[in-house]
Amino acid sequence: MSFDTWLLLLITSLGISLVPGPNALLVLTHGALHGRQKALFTIMGGLLGFAIMIGLCVFGIGALLKSSVFWFGVLKWVGGLYIIWLGIKLWLSPPILLEEDQAMGQTASSQLFSQGALSAITNPKALLLFMAMLPQFINPNGNLFVQFLIIAITYSLTEFAAEYLCVYAASHIRPWLARVGKRFNQGFGGLFVVIGAALPLRS
Question: Which of 46, 79, 108, 122 could form a disulfide with 132 if both were Cys (CB 3.0 to 4.6 A apart)?
Fold first, then answer.
């Protein structure tokens, strides 16, 4: 993977990671209820779940792309259109409102880890997003395992940074999202549209 491709991967991963999803909301809640240190187990569980999903996508897509140049092009365009659709949907969506679940109480670290992993693995939207995003960065003629490591590590770094930011700001992010959530959605929705339009045009 060239440096330019990796840099675009980094920007795309950062954009995806900064949009609040089920894992980010779970981490935020665990941070508010259990503290920063215990919420790290939730984050690490989520990263493991995402790495598993990325691996399934990379090797599954890689096998398909090796057998058909035509499907490589189709996947890139379908993936780009899907990212644009996500951007439009995010632009139009209302701000996210977060509520604490006081019934969660104290939870063991292993349970927080498993909850984070299951939240990532069972999220169909994340799977669809990876299926749309990854063909833009996979070289079917290259080493799929090396590409998997690069993609998984890059996404894990951006996701960890975004989720830890949620944990750090757990006591402040609720009123902030209520105040600027709509502009937040529009900003990242617009970013997704630009990324979705640009990625399939790359050679």
Answer: 79
